Amino acid sequence: MRYFIAVAEEKHFGRAAERLHMAQPPLSQQIKQLEEQLGTQLLVRNTRKVDLTAAGELLLARARLLLAEVEKLEQDVRLVGQGASGVLRVAFSGTATYRLMPTIVQAARRNMPGLRLSVQGEMLTPEMEIALEEQRVDVAVLRPPIRSNQLSLKFLEKDELVVALPEDHELASRGLLDLADLAEEPFITYRMNSAVSNISTEACQRAGFSPHIVQETQETSTLLSFVASGMGVALVPTARQMFALQGIVFRQLRDAPEVDLAVAWKTGSETALLTKFLDLFEAPTPTEGTPA
């Protein structure tokens, strides 16, 4: 696979051989054996360059994923061999990254000494679903609803969306707002098809308007930075101020849409290690004044 990726990326056997620090004839032989093993042509060769067939394009995409997973597996095995009780890969949605992740990491250190956590933050629900299905992540704290029937969920809490405004916005001087007050505003949103984006759009439509979206982003920190710059307003899942970010204020909504927070894992993957880790989510204790 490494040989094939090198040739596919370099589109030249000579340059691929140099990259791999090997001679060209054995590299050519390895690729030929791979094609014979798979029973299909992967590369179209000519005197100047190499092109991929449709089968080769598919193999290149999958091979990159496989090698990345193999490298991660090597790291995890090495950690356990060095004395770790186990390794879990955990992903968190945007706001949960800032509020729940520190609580869970601290609880794991207290209750599961020796456990090594590989943590990814600021992820959106659709990509966490795929990562769980492909077993690139063991646990994900995400925002339902989800589309996958391969995952199990444990609901943690329910949040209300609030509106984030530039501090000099005319609505910032008011207390409670209605969604309809935002009908003419430019919106900063999470990427389309994320759970919060879908819930926000549906809520705005029930309030009588479709949000005018001027910017999409994945990270909550980036989204709020855009708001602080005056680019637009945003709906975020928190009932209290999330960041002490200069240039931004949060206001509650009378008709605030609700969003759930849940922990998810792939059904059938419940090892003793995973089960014990999931028990840490039974009673999260957020610090007063931090975001939900």
Summarize the structure.
The chain is α/β, with parallel strands linked by helices. The chain contains nine helices and eleven strands.
Describe this structure in words.
Helix 1 packs across helix 2 (13-20) and helix 1 (2-10) crosses helix 4 (54-81). The chain folds into three domains: 2-79, Orthogonal Bundle (Arc Repressor Mutant, subunit A), CATH 1.10.10.10; 85-156 and 261-281, Periplasmic binding protein-like II (D-Maltodextrin-Binding Protein, domain 2); 158-259, D-Maltodextrin-Binding Protein, domain 2, CATH 3.40.190.10. The model is unreliable at 284-292 (pLDDT under 50). Strand 7 (186-190), helix 7 (195-206) and strand 8 (212-217) form a beta-alpha-beta unit. It is globular and about 75 Å long. The strands form three sheets. Strands 3, 4, 5, 6, 9, 10 and 11 form a seven-stranded mixed β-sheet that branches. It is built from nine helices and eleven strands. With 292 residues, the chain is of the alpha/beta class.
Describe the largest sheet. 7 strands, mixed
CATH architecture of the largest domain: 3-Layer(aba) Sandwich
CA-CA gap between termini: 44 Å
Radius of gyration over all CA atoms, rounded = 24 Å
Arithmetic mean pLDDT = 86
Number of helical stretches of at least 4 residues: 9
Overall spatial form: globular
Q: What structural class results from the helix and strand content?
A: alpha/beta
Quantity of strands, as a count: 11
Strand content: 15-25%
CATH class of the largest domain equals Alpha Beta
